[in-house]
């Protein structure tokens, strides 16, 4: 089962990623000013996963990626994949496991290792 992981960017904004059961990032959200916005977006994804559209594209370097969209809003952008089959497997994993996925919050501790 995958997981939604909320973290803080260097500019003090928040983002979340959806990771596969093996820990590999499948997609990354845009930046949000408040952590609550991330949590609301994750709950929206979990509640309405069947409403999202996955727009597949090819980058200039030849790799494949998708944008997860609802109406005209980009909700997340995927990592780069080497083949269309791997891209489709990433989309399938989102659809199959996102509803029961855990939400992990890594925003509380800025530094895990002390000096």
UniProtKB/TrEMBL annotation:
UniProt cross-references to Gene3D superfamilies, sorted A to Z: 2.30.29.80
Q: Which residues form the signal peptide?
A: none
**Alphabetical list of PANTHER family matching this protein:** PTHR40606, UPF0339 PROTEIN YEGP (PTHR40606:SF1)
Q: What is the lineage of its organism?
A: Bacteria, Pseudomonadati, Bacteroidota, Flavobacteriia, Flavobacteriales
Concerning InterPro entries, the annotation shows: UPF0339_domain, YegP-like_sf
Protein name, as recorded = DUF1508 domain-containing protein
